[in-house]
Amino acid sequence: MYTILLIGIGGFIGAVLRYSLSGWVQNSFVNFPLGTLVVNIVGSFFLGLVMYLSEYQGLFSEETRILLTIGLLGAFTTLSTFSYESFRLLESSKLMQLTMNIVATVLFSIFAVYLGKISALNLAAYLRGIK
Questions:
Q1: What does residue 70 show for φ and ψ, rounded to 5 degrees?
Q2: What's the pTM value of the predicted model, to 2 decimals?
Q3: For an engineered disulfide with 75, which of 14, 20, 56, 124 has Cβ 3.0 to 4.6 Å away?
Q4: What's the structural domain count of the chain?
Q5: Which domain holds residue 48?
């Protein structure tokens, strides 16, 4: 029950953050789903960061990792919105924007996880040097 509560709290925070950031970014870009793209890239970075700090550096407890990854980041990032927005671009025959959206989301999200990993390793090395 405690784990479900942690996921729910994290999910609430992640959903509110996603709504806020995505809406703020999207206000400037009407014809391209930049808000969702930014949210997915930022979320991928933080997922990489948290997972590497947690799994390989032992920096977070299992409860904190669950709250941050399954709860907060699970609600923050969204494949369903990406899929819907991509389909709408296809439906509108905006094939160039569709291609850009798919390629940018996949490549930048994977790269963001990599940057999260590198950041986690650097942070862990820095923290070990402080001790």
A1: -75, -45
A2: 0.85
A3: 14
A4: 1
A5: 2-130
